[in-house]
């Protein structure tokens, strides 16, 4: 069709529409400038330290004010300038780094195929547990949510419902999809149903003795192939699995709050964790639309390890008597949304 149209134009059977010079969709200059002004304010609000969105808007303005050729010249020059900026280099680095996360020496290069995870159990229905459960059922994984008593279990299920309802309100999910996701969730107070799960994620409070007890129980009740994962952000995984004989299937699956929204997932492997378990979790991470990064079992793993100096410097300023709110504003303004 496109070739036919081009020939028709060539043979003067159809008019040649010079789309570059079309102005019928443009607002009058005054209104256009107001729209651009609003767009600039939005761009600054979303990313205060990035200049390229503003430059894009400047280029559009040049095309509207001085005509399309002037706009194209400005675009070519601006592009050339941005190409050699630190921001451009960093964004390219991020792009390729995200793709490199799926290549893990000693795991993904062994020709292993990920095993099928048919059912997931989550221990703890608090903020993290309910967030992880939400992420799982949104990706069609049947989930068994365990809590210590009826009250905590109902609270956990309510949190998951609230997470899903928020998506319905925002138009990201239909009522039908909401019902289907919720039907994948089962609450339990005991370990009886754990004999049919392929992956357990423990998300209880950061208490070593409690976690050790849980992992000893899991070893008893889960099938021998089941992956035993912990969502800890601070505790040594070898310590958590100390009272078990299943060191090869103990792994960290550290989500970030809110777990159903934040895209990062740290997969923490110890010197004992099998390559098969790492491959399996990478596959799960991809299926629940996370960016999984495989890290070593060291203090703070990767994210908190980077976060420590940031927190320390903020606390140092507090020790020097600086206003806490000023420090918080500086962090937020710099682009750290949590302040």
TrEMBL record:
Transmembrane feature ranges: 120-141
Protein's name according to its UniProt entry: 3-hydroxyacyl-CoA dehydrogenase
Keywords carried by this UniProt record: Isomerase, Lyase, Membrane, Multifunctional enzyme, Oxidoreductase, Transmembrane, Transmembrane helix
The species this protein was found in: Pseudoroegneria spicata (Bluebunch wheatgrass)
Pfam family, one: 3HCDH_N
GO cellular component: peroxisome
Family classification: In the central section; belongs to the 3-hydroxyacyl-CoA dehydrogenase family.
One of the protein's GO biological processes: fatty acid beta-oxidation
């Amino acid at each position: 069709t496109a070739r036919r149209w081009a020939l028709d134009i060539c043979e003067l059977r159809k008019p040649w529409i010079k789309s570059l010079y079309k102005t019928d969709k443009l607002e009058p200059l005054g209104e256009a400038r107001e729209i651009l002004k609003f767009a600039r304010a939005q761009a600054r609000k979303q990313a205060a330290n990035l200049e390229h969105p503003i430059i894009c808007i400047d280029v559009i303005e040049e095309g509207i004010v001085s005509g399309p050729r002037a706009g194209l010249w400005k675009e070519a020059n601006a592009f050339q300038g941005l190409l050699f900026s630190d921001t451009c280099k960093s964004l390219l680095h991020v792009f390729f780094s995200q793709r490199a996360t799926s290549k893990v020496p000693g795991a993904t290069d062994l020709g292993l195929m990920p095993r099928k995870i048919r059912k997931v159990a989550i221990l703890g229905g608090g903020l993290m547990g309910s967030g992880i459960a939400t992420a799982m059922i949104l990706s069609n994984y049947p989930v068994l949510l365990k809590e210590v008593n009826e009250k905590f279990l109902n609270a956990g299920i309510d949190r998951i419902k609230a997470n899903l309802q928020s998506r319905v309100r925002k138009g990201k999910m239909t009522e039908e999809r909401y019902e289907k996701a919720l039907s994948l969730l089962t609450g339990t107070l005991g370990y009886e149903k754990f004999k049919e799960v392929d992956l357990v994620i423990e998300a209880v409070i950061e208490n070593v003795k409690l976690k050790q007890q849980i992992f000893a129980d899991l070893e008893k009740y889960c099938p021998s192939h089941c992956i035993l994962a912990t969502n800890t952000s601070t505790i040594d995984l070898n310590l958590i699995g100390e009272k078990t004989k299943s060191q090869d299937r103990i792994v960290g699956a550290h989500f970030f709050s809110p777990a159903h929204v934040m895209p990062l997932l740290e997969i923490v492997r110890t010197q004992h964790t099998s390559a098969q378990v790492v491959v399996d979790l990478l596959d799960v991470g991809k299926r629940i639309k996370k960016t999984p990064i495989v890290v070593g079992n060291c203090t703070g793993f990767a994210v908190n390890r980077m976060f420590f100096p940031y927190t320390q410097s903020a606390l140092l300023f507090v020790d020097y008597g600086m206003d806490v709110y000023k420090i918080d504003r500086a962090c937020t303004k710099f682009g750290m949304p949590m302040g």
